[in-house]
Amino acid sequence: MLHTMYGNCGYKIIIKKTNYKIFHITDVSNLDHIKAKNYNLYMVEANYNDEEIKQRIEKEIQNGEFLLGKKVENCHLSESQWKKFMLENAGENSDCIKIHQHKERT
Length: 106
Known about the structure:
The protein is α/β, with parallel strands linked by helices. The protein has a domain at 2-47 and 76-99. It has three helices and five strands. The chain has helices spanning 50-62, 68-75, 79-89; strands at residues 2-3, 9-15, 20-25, 41-45, 95-99. It has a five-stranded mixed β-sheet, with no helix packed on it. Strand 1 and strand 2 form a beta hairpin. Helix 1 (50-62) runs antiparallel to helix 2 (68-75). It is elongated, with a radius of gyration of 16 Å.
């Protein structure tokens, strides 16, 4: 089990009979120092774009609003962090799924 400073956790699941490996993690700000090489399935949260979150934070500051964008940065992975982790860990035949993606409401 993997823990973050927020008390959240992720799981590395290995089904011994078939050696099928699953990596599942959500609500973390980074995956620094986490290794999960060549798992069969990665289910990792990635719910914001770096440029879009910067714009959101700037708008929140200008409007004197609660900095929800900062909270998002501090407890979720960005798409670029997700891609970096996948490039460093996923194998040629790994399935990689972004979970808990946010959609902007208009």
